[in-house]
Amino acid sequence: MATSKPSKPAEYIRAAREIEAARASEAAGVSGAAQGENVATLAVLSTFTAELLKPFLVVEAQWLNCPLRPWFGPFGQLEQLVLDDRSDLWKQSPDVLWIAVRLEDVDRHLVHESAAIGPEATRRRLDAMRQRVVGLARTARSKHRASILVSNWIPDARHSLNVFDASDVDGFGHLVAEANRQLARDLAEISDAHVFDYAGIVAGSGALAWTDRRLWYMARSGSSSENLVPLAHSVARAVRALLRPAAKCLVLDLDNTLWGGVLGDDGAAGIKLGDDYPGNVFKDFQAALLGLRRRGLLLAIASKNDEQTVLDMLDSHPEMLLRREHFAAICANWGAKPESLRIIAQRLNIGLDSLVFLDDNPVERAAVRTALPMVHVVELPAEPLGYLAALGEVAVFDQARLSAEDRARAEMYRSETTRQQVAEQAGNVEDFLRDLDMVAQVGLADSNTLERIHQLIQKTNQFNLTTRRHNLDDLRRLAGSPDAAVAWLRLADRYGDLGLVCVGIIERLDSECWEIDTLLMSCRVMGRHVEDAFLSYLAELARAGGARRLRGVLRPTAKNTPVQNFYPDHGFTELARDAEERSYLAELADRAFAWPMVIGRIAQATQENVRV
Amino acid sequence: MSSPVEQRTCRVVAEVFGLPVDQVTLATSQETLDDWDSLNVLNVLMAIEGEFDVTVAPEEASEFVSVERIVTVLRTKGIG
Q1: How far is A223 from chain B (nearest CA, A)?
Q2: CATH second-level architecture of A436-602?
Q3: What pTM, to 2 d.p., does this model score?
């Protein structure tokens, strides 16, 4: 791996590719089952374009010594993947599952509507979103041993709230904070499920600078390109904390680390420690170290000093916050520091790999790094003002709360029978789809819809049977022709409006047969039977045009593999195929292509039946 | 001989797609690279912005269909 961390997006992409290539060649070059064992899999289910994080995640995790292979579920498909035992998600056998649902995606106008609908209705909508992710976490827990991270929420990073929002006890910021707290309570009930503090990361980076409006509106990106780094870094830290043991003991130097100056030269009265600069910098640093100790980290001293001088300082200096009793081991002598670290590890009966070494002197750090590469050495900045921040960056201190049951669970899941038993208790995909309360509206292109239809035709690659890029003039001509129809489908569900998601064009071939020239769907609604509903509507239109048969065309591309069996799967018979095109035929009996049960249907709004 | 801005653009595109730099030319486009999808357009966009220290508007990003068109967009921004 390179010696310095990348800074630009292209460098991350290149560095991630190098890491992945090294893994691949290592796996190919060495035989045996040991290969690839230490690369963990993170599965990401998101309501935004999380794939942009991939190179950043790979690199940041590698820098934390927690090699990671991120896998991304198709955008917006959360329930489908979690509920289905045989889904691609579970095939990954993830070590960690990150459920990243943003308020700005699933209820994106709530921030503006809150004041009008009042706190109770706002709470209900926040509750619906929270119950959704908690339900996902619970189902995931019943199916798999993966650790679970669930993002919490921010009001909306794209603009600031009303200046007096916080003054209102039912202000939107407070309601979101309440939802976050309830999320923490809910997840505490699910073993090895944890809040991923998205709100904290956004606040830390600056909410107003968090997003890039271009990337947001063009691509539903999670953040600006600069902020992909801190976001990926935090995810990698959370993953590392869940998968790797935390450090057990922090070994501290004294002079110019816990206080300013040199005790042996300056004397206890001459060192800098107290409530004024620069003593206050060291005093605050000691307070932070004491805080770490209260969270279970052992503290120890490795100092080149006379032992009695050190003990006197610890016992009697009035400004010291750290006292003799706070240290599990004190090694004050004139020997080499690596030797002191060995003694400390031995005395505490812990491995050297669970020690963290903190020293202001780069020469000492290098000595420890060379002699004891398994010890984690903190890279302290030259300036004491930066110590506190450096301490906050030590990822090996991170520890998720794991119960004994959590640790035992890994064993439990070895048994496949257990897995099957719990799977039976969980819900299934059809139940989920029914509970979504999907409602579709279908209709023919008019001046209101033509722009969106054209846009979908230009950009849809995956769920697109023919990938014909008709231009606006073509579309107007087809929409106006009595021998063709340009049709659309809009979808809404209990979580909100998904907009116009399907486009189809059918054309008359002869008096009895119509052809599906174009059939495409936005991939965010895949796996919901929406395409069945839309095909049903196209069949209806063809029937109304006198058709008795419907011809389907598939033009395979590198990108439309998900739909290459669409026509056979829907009861069409293959007529012909060559490299570029396959054609299919289906009889249009009265009940052929039924509208799916799980999707409601409302009539086309009557405001405009005028063709363009 | 191609200009410096063309060379730098080719190099950035090669980095994003993981190709040897000599395999990327002005003619490289969404038609010649299967991986040139909407996600990678964003990766190219971010990489180009980082490389040339420019901001690309959404309307300009929709021009990112080939190396040549990217260079054209950069020229309108006074680069090259």
Answers
A1: 12
A2: 3-Layer(aba) Sandwich (3.40)
A3: 0.78
Q: Residue A514 is encoded by which pair of tokens? A: 């119509």
Q: What residue ranges of chain A have pLDDT lower than 50?
A: 1, 31-35, 410-426, 606-612
Count CB atoms within 10 A of the CB of residue A442. Answer: 23
Residues of chain A in contact with residue B16, where contact means CB-CB under 8 angstroms, are 10, 13
The shortest C-alpha distance from A602 to chain B (Å) reads 33
Of the residues B40, B43, B49, B52, the best mutation for testing chain A's interface (the one with the most A CB atoms within 10 Å of its CB) is B43
* The pLDDT of residue A112: 92
Helix axes A472-480, A450-459, angle to 10 degrees: 120
Predicted local confidence at residue A427, as pLDDT: 59
In sequence order, what DSSP letters do the residues of A17-55 get, joined into one string?
HHHHHHHHHHHHHS-STTTTTT-EEEEEEESS-GGGGHH
For chain A, residues classed under CATH 3.40.50.1110 are 39-244+403-410
Whether pLDDT at B80 is above 90 = no
Residue A71 in contact with residue A43, Cβ under 8 Å? yes
Phi/psi-derived region of residue A463, left when phi > 0, alpha when psi is between -120 and 50, beta in every other case: beta
Q: For residue A602, what is the enclosing H or E element?
A: strand A599-602
pLDDT for position A443: 95
Portions of chain A given CATH number 3.40.630.30: 436-602
- Pair of tokens at residue A108: 């994106």
Distance from B1 to chain A by nearest Cα, in Å?
25
Q: Give the residue range(s) of CATH 3.40.50.1000 domains in chain A.
A: 249-397
Instruction: Give pLDDT, residue A429.
Output: 77
Token pair for residue A471? 């231009």
In this prediction, residue A208 carries a pLDDT of: 84
Domains in chain B (CATH in brackets) are 4-76 (1.10.1200.10)
- Whether A110 has its CB under 8 Å from any CB of chain B: the answer is no
Enter the tokens of residue A11: 């460098």
CATH fold of the domain at A249-397 = Rossmann fold (3.40.50)
B34/A558 Cβ within 8 A: yes
pLDDT of residue A422: 40
Q: Which residues of A touch B56 (CB under 8 A)?
A: 214
> What pLDDT, on a 0 to 100 scale, did the predictor assign at position A33?
43
ipTM of this predicted structure = 0.83
Task: Check residue A558 and report its DSSP letter.
Answer: S
Which of the following CATH numbers is that of domain A39-244+403-410: 3.40.30.10, 3.40.50.1110, 3.40.50.10990, 3.40.50.720? 3.40.50.1110
Q: Is A22 on the interface with B (CB under 8 A)?
A: no
Q: What is the DSSP string of A226-295?
A: TTHHHHHHHHHHHHHHHHSPPP-EEEE--BTTTBBS-HHHH-TTTSB-SSSTTHHHHHHHHHHHHHHHHT
> What pLDDT sits at residue A157?
74
pLDDT of residue A34: 45
Nearest to A46 by CA among A183, A149, A190, A124: A149
Question: Chain A partners of B15 at a C-beta cutoff of 8 Å?
Answer: 10, 13-14
Cβ partners under 8 Å of residue A291, min gap 6 = none
